[in-house]
Amino acid sequence: MKIQVINPNTSALMTAKIEQAAQAIARPGTHIVASCPEDGPVSIEGHFDEAIATVGLLNEIRKGMQQGYDAHVIACFGDPGLLAARELATGPVIGIAEAAFHMASLISTRFAVVTTLIRTRIIAEHLLERYGMANLCTSVRCIDEPVLALEDTNPQLIERIAEEGRKAAREGAGAIVLGCGGMADLRSPLTEAIGLPVVEGVTAAVKLAEALLELRLSTSKVGDLAYPVAKPFKGQFAHWGAT
Question: Which domain of life is it from (predicted)?
Fold first, then answer.
């Protein structure tokens, strides 16, 4: 099986980190390739960034379909463009936040999220509500560092994430969800440092994509996730007119 892992921001360093984590967790025979758009924000830290990044993400989805990928992972914790991508794609599309929440709910009755900037806390809380997981989450905690600080993590930054995880554990969380695709390589060191199971969304999404493909399950094309209605597009989006 072939799984495309898309980093919706334009950071090549973060994309390489995400690809390495995905390849390390994939089973033998699963072919993983990570990509990122050529155009768009260098990091995604708000609603505006998500809106701009979604166009590049959908372009990457279409490229992946043309290249024969069986499933797609959106490796940003805001799950930007997830439903639009599911409309477009023929195979399963997994967002890393939704994947991580579901995995955490299978191993704990309550979990906490540790993410980056304080301003993104509300976005994570809205996702928890949308996915029906809000009552399982004890807190969304933030280290208040920009996403790009995770391109090259250092022991001090890892300790700041770990300390928020330990605080969540003292408040009753049974597992920790890492709230950024840039944390893809930190699951093992943080599990040891926090002393709780740590769920990381990129790796969780890859395993769910593998499971869906083995079960021969894909997005229902009846209802709102049917393929996009064919119509003309104008200007810089004219190439979407054949969709």
Answer: Bacteria
What SS3 class is residue 128?
A: helix
User: Using one digit for the tens of pLDDT, what is the confidence trace for 137-167?
Assistant: 999 999 999 999 999 889 999 999 999 999 9
Taken in order of first residue, the domains within the chain and their CATH numbers are 2-95+204-242 (3.40.50.12500), 97-201 (3.40.50.12500)
Residue with tokens 């060191």: 189
Q: CB atoms < 10 A from the CB of 151, how many?
A: 16
pTM (2 d.p.): 0.95
In whole angstroms, what separates CA 28 from the centre of its chain? 22
Residues making up the chain, counted from first to last: 243
pLDDT, tens only, 37-61:
999 999 999 999 999 999 999 999 9
Smallest CA-to-CA distance from 216 within 65, 90, 79 is with 90
Give me 13's structure tokens. Answer: 């360093």
Place of tokens 């996702």: 127
